[in-house]
Amino acid sequence: MIYYKRKTGVGMTYYDKTKNEYDNLTPGLKKVAEVLLTNPILFATHPAKKIAHVLDVSETMVIRFSKAIGYDGFGSLQADVKHNLLTIKPPKKVSAEDKHPFRRIMESDSNNINHIIDHLDWRIAENIVDSLQKAENIQVVGYYQSFAYAHWFAVLLNKLLGNTQLYRPETDIGISKPGSGQCVVIFSYFRYAIGTIRLAEEARDQGNQVIVITDSRSSPVVEYADHALVIPFAQRSVLEKGPVTFSVLNSLLLHIAHRIDKLDIVNPTNNYYIQ
Fold first, then answer.
1. What phi-psi label fits residue 186: left (phi over 0), alpha (psi between -120 and 50 degrees) or beta?
2. Cα–Cα distance between 202 and 196 in angstroms, integer?
3. How far is CA 188 from CA 112, 117, 155, 257, in A?
4. Which CATH fold topology does 122-269 show?
5. What is the CATH number of domain 14-86?
6. For the whole model, what pTM was predicted?
7. pLDDT tens sequence across 43-85
């Protein structure tokens, strides 16, 4: 297969070029792209042969990827990655004695959230908010570890809109309501439960609006989505995904609350002993 360079514009970073060319890449090259977007330090600090070994691909594929997104070769890509990483302002240092283990974990969560802020497609987030606000009924789906995200999101979204139900895998059977007025929100993270993939396909076949929140553009559920919000995690850890996912969901909920003028629902003081 031959890859042609496309004009990517002056001043574009490795991140911009990868995003621009992503849809034109083969599945193998997309695998390299995913890791570059989420873990650029790997590309800045190791030769192509080492990166290929880590990704379980050939060295040739790493070089082909570099050319596919507009570079002369891997060296040019690596130089651009290094330049962009060096221009990032280092975080404020804290003395070692102040670094309690709990603090280090929370700092890691905070760094992950700040990283995701720069890598989320906010246009898609806006489209998701539009679809949720206009939907007649909403069903939120999540299997296994994703069930926690689905449950939290469904409860609060129902507080705002009053038309949201949580899909219960242990009792519910399939998507029952047809039509574009029905919206199905599906959380699907690695290793991608078969149940969520089947529900996404069923919802699409029913003519529902399908919203997917996932961790990779290569996630098998993306092909069934009208809107797919990808939260690109560098690692596969469930503990890493939780704080970032809830932060993203919180931004969606607050955006909806602001639009419909129901910010008071977010913190209803009349429900508490201390006003």
1. beta
2. 10
3. 19, 20, 18, 25
4. Rossmann fold (3.40.50)
5. 1.10.10.10
6. 0.71
7. 988 899 999 988 889 999 999 999 999 999 999 999 999 888 7
